[in-house]
Design a protein that fits this description.
single chain, 11 helices, globular
């Protein structure tokens, strides 16, 4: 049983505590066999579609959009998003993935889209009848957002989009993509980017290839060849793309840390349970001081991660719209700590920890990508250092 005492911390109000407890109970009932089924199921897309529908029907995706468009609260609550991701990740990584992408793939629209775009996309995202995606990464532009090469050229009341995107979560599965493309010159760098809502059925948008990764998640490379999008689908003003991307990532980077925290809590639970059951040399291995040292480090990493994650979420909800420093610290520490914690859990479980499909083996594959997407650990360190230098 995972430790839930952190819900008593002052970062939360009673409605958020109730949300976390109700989601935990639902996940325990509904997601028990999901991971094993996902790994055995050849049709991952169908599994993900069904999962998004279940999350929508149960009302959990209402945390992903504002109340005016079918959401639960007037504005997006990062604390609620973090609680959801931590809880779902602890139960099933694919459930966390499905939930997270509904939010990441629609938040830019919620924050910067015209009213018509919000009405068009957000209610269906909240209901789980429309799958969202966020298309930024390119073959030669990941952390270096200013190097994006996909172009969007204005022609009358449309934009003509050409280029490639890769490692796009929900690629080939999504009903729409929030796409970032260059509307200015390469010399303008980040100032020449714009953002668009692009329907998956738009002519000229192709799924070039599906990408298989260590954990079973739907990813793809997309190609845009003469893809014509109405100018009304642009988010914000031309040239606002970098600002939109950074504001969206500020909102969601703490939630990546929350997912890592969920994985780490599950790993700690598995290690504690095994250490008290497994006997060696006439006693439970939990009695050995070297095992206790691992458990102590794991528990400390979990609590430290939770403090940073929920500090960042509280700051975004209650203090400022931009919390780049706090968000970067939360993502950096929680994802790195989760990697250590899962690895330590495998060491405690020994041979059982590396059996294909075992809970901690799945966690090991799930957790590694979190140190890369939405800004690598190295990028988070740069963000933190620059913020510290600016404040000195």
């Amino acid at each position: 049983m995972a430790d839930r005492s952190f819900l008593d911390w002052p970062f939360f109000d009673d409605s958020q505590r109730q949300f976390a407890r109700e989601l935990d109970a639902w996940a325990a009932r509904e997601l028990g066999h999901l991971e094993a089924e996902a790994e055995a199921d050849a049709d991952l897309d169908a599994t993900c579609r069904a999962l998004v529908q279940r999350l929508g029907q149960a009302g959990w995706l209402r945390a992903s959009v504002p109340a005016a468009y079918g959401g639960a609260l007037a504005t997006l609550s990062v604390r609620q998003l973090c609680l959801a991701r931590e809880t779902l990740a602890r139960h099933a990584g694919l459930a966390d993935f499905a939930f997270a992408m509904q939010g990441l793939g629609s938040a830019s629209i919620a924050l910067f889209g015209a009213e018509a775009l919000k009405q068009r996309y957000l209610p269906a995202v909240a209901a789980g009848t429309h799958i969202a995606a966020f298309a930024m990464t390119e073959p030669d532009a990941g952390s270096d957002v200013a190097a994006l090469a996909t172009t969007a050229r204005r022609e009358a009341d449309t934009y003509l989009i050409n280029g490639d995107k890769t490692f796009i979560s929900n690629g080939g599965l999504a009903d729409h993509y929030v796409l970032f493309a260059r509307t200015g010159t390469p010399e303008q760098g980040a100032r020449g980017l714009s953002a668009f809502g692009v329907d998956a059925t738009t002519p000229g948008l192709h799924v070039a290839e599906r990408i298989t990764v260590s954990a079973p998640h739907p990813l793809a490379r997309l190609r845009f060849e003469g893809c014509r999008v109405p100018a009304s689908q642009r988010l914000g003003q031309e040239g606002d793309g970098f600002k939109i991307a950074m504001a969206t990532l500020d909102l969601f980077r703490p939630t990546v840390g929350a997912a890592a925290l969920g994985f780490a809590r599950r790993a700690l639970d598995e290690a504690l349970a095994w250490a008290t059951r497994r006997r060696a040399f006439g006693q439970p291995i939990a009695e050995f001081q070297l095992v206790q040292a691992k458990l102590a480090d794991m528990a400390t990493d979990v609590d430290a991660s939770a403090l940073l994650v929920y500090r960042a979420a509280w700051a975004r909800d209650c203090q400022a719209d931009r919390v780049s420093r706090e968000a970067a610290m939360a993502k950096l520490f929680a994802t790195e700590a989760a990697q250590r914690t899962v690895d330590a859990a495998i060491q405690v479980l020994g041979g059982r920890g590396v059996i294909s499909g075992a809970p901690v083996e799945r966690l090991y594959r799930e957790v590694r990508a979190l140190r890369i997407y939405e800004g690598t650990s190295e990028i988070q360190r740069l963000v933190i250092a620059r913020q510290a230098l600016a404040a000195s």
